[in-house]
Every structure is written in C-alpha cells, then in structure tokens.
Amino acid sequence: MSKTLKQKLLDKEKEIKKNQKELKQLRQQEKAEADKARICRQTNRGGLIEKLIPHLAELSDSEFESYINKVLLPAPPPAIPQGGILTEGDDGNDEE
Question: pLDDT digits over 27-76, tens only?
C-alpha cells in the first residue's frame, strides 16, 4: 500500500527537522573548531613574544598594552596637507 500524501508530507517535515538539527550541530562544531584554533594561535604567539622579550611576562595587562602601543606599533601616519593629497616625498609637514 502506498503512502498517502499526508503521510509523505509528515515524513518530509520530519526529515527537514532532522536536517536542521544536524546543520545546527555542524555549525556549532565549526565554531568550536575555529575558537580552538584562535586560542591556540593566540597562545603560541603570546608565548613567542614572551620568549623573545622575557621581561614582558612580569608586566600587568595595562603595562603590556602600553608597551605594545609604544614599541611595536608603527608611528601614526603623517598629517594630511590642506589640499588633501600627499605628493611623493611630502611628509605632510609645511616646513621646507
């Protein structure tokens, strides 16, 4: 005996719910793996920084941030002249 249309609809709805649940689980797994990779990357890079500059391990978080901002980050870009365009060799200063 073949299934009725109503039974086929119920079966498909059940299948859709199952697939949605599986999709949700896969997305959660993907996020967990990405989080794990991020934490691993941060730990490795932090360890490398402490290996290269050992005294940083003794600093507080705010001291560490201050050190990074002063020493490792590049200088701010030159000021933009009034015309708005820097030409080659122009450092943004009006002095000549």
Answer: 999 999 999 999 999 999 999 989 998 998 899 999 999 988 888 777 77
Domain count, the chain: 1
pTM beyond 0.90, yes or no: no
Residue 96 corresponds to which amino acid? E
Q: Is residue 32 part of a domain?
A: yes
Are the C-beta atoms of 90 and 81 separated by less than 8 Å? yes
Angstrom distance (rounded) from CA 91 to CA 81: 9
Q: Which domain holds residue 56?
A: 20-71
Examine residue 84 and state whether it is found in any structural domain, yes or no.
no
Report the C-alpha gap between 92 and 86 in whole angstroms.
7
CA-nearest of 43, 38, 48, 37 to 72 is 48
